[in-house]
Amino acid sequence: MSNSNTSSEDPYMLGRNYYASARLAMLHLLIHAQFGFLLHPSIKLPSAIKNQEQLRIADVGTGTGIWIGELTRELPQAHIDGYDISDEQYPPQEWYGPNVSLSKLDIFKPLPKELEGKYDVVHLRFFMTIASDDNVQAVVNNLKGMLKPGGCLQWVERDWMSKFPEKAEKSDDPHTQITCYHRSLFPKVRWINSLPAQFEQCGLEVLDYVTQAPLPVYRKPWNEDCLIGWAAIGDLIKNQEDKKWYRERLAEAAENAKKGWYVDWELVVCVGRKDG
Predict the structure, then answer these.
(1) Beta-bridge partner residues of 80
(2) 230 alpha-carbon distance from chain centroid
(3) Which of left, alpha, beta for 178 (phi over 0: left; psi -120 to 50: alpha)?
(4) What residues form DSSP beta bridges with 158?
(5) Which CA distances in Å does 106 have to 6, 94, 136, 215?
(6) Which positions fall inside the Methyltransferase domain (predicted)?
């Protein structure tokens, strides 16, 4: 596996250093703890499960590969391929065994022929900072193209932005002010609330659509994971006046979080099946 740096076309803004990787690890563990599954129960693996070496699974936007690492414990003989626009956060491939590959792929570009109709399951999560209302259909089409007939797509997201107004006032709490500031940085994400429609428009049968607020026992680590990501965004701000304002609001948000303040946002899981 190559050790090349992040692509110059990498749209991901939350960083790929060890802080970012640790944040993603906590994010994964929180999702798993919340839902209790890696693959949604509506996904019925084909008869190949009896002969797992025929089962092929893809993880798109794999990041650190932690989802794949956990899945190898449940399906040790399955072939699992991880794809990301950057390989900078990948662990040594041999840690995951001979049935796992980790390589680079830009899912926003036309799908390579060799990936068409290859997988029983395709998994993707947390594209809210890089997918937009304008390009999400192209992503879903590419993911569908990776599926075998009868294969399933599982998409996991965080519906955060819809909980906040389009514009903040100076009197608003710091979470609202920062989130509204992020609207100038992030793509438009109305698509998160319409994932089932996005699936159906691409010809996928929606098997399930689940929304859940974080359980109270996980609110604190979710808050902290969020604040770590926000700190990484703040480091990217070039305007020094904006950066100072942002850091002040972030410090206030952290203090509020310590006192029990939290955002009642939702985790979203959408599962679809390709005809066949």
Answers:
(1) 57, 100
(2) 16
(3) alpha
(4) 267
(5) 12, 23, 13, 34
(6) 57-151
Contact by Cβ (8 Å): 69, 46: no
| Band of residue 86 on the pLDDT scale cut at 50, 70, 90 | confident
Residue length of the chain: 276
User: Locate tokens 């794999």: which residue?
Assistant: 62
Residues 6+ apart with CB under 8 A from 128: 157, 158, 160, 161, 186, 189, 192
**Euclidean distance between CA atoms 70 and 24, whole angstroms:** 14
- Please give the Cα distance from 112 to 198 (Å, whole number): 22
Q: pLDDT band at residue 189, thresholds of 50, 70 and 90? A: confident
Q: How many CB atoms lie within 10 A of CB 16?
A: 20
Distance CA 120, CA 56 (A): 6
Diameter over CA atoms, the chain: 60
**Structural tokens at position 192:** 């998160």
**Banded pLDDT at 177 (limits 50, 70, 90):** very high
> What residues contact residue 156 under an 8 Å CB cut-off, 6+ apart?
31, 123, 124, 125, 126, 267, 268, 269
The DSSP string of 85-141 is S--TTPPPGGGG-TTEEEEE--TTSPPPGGGTT-EEEEEEE--TTT--TTTHHHHHH
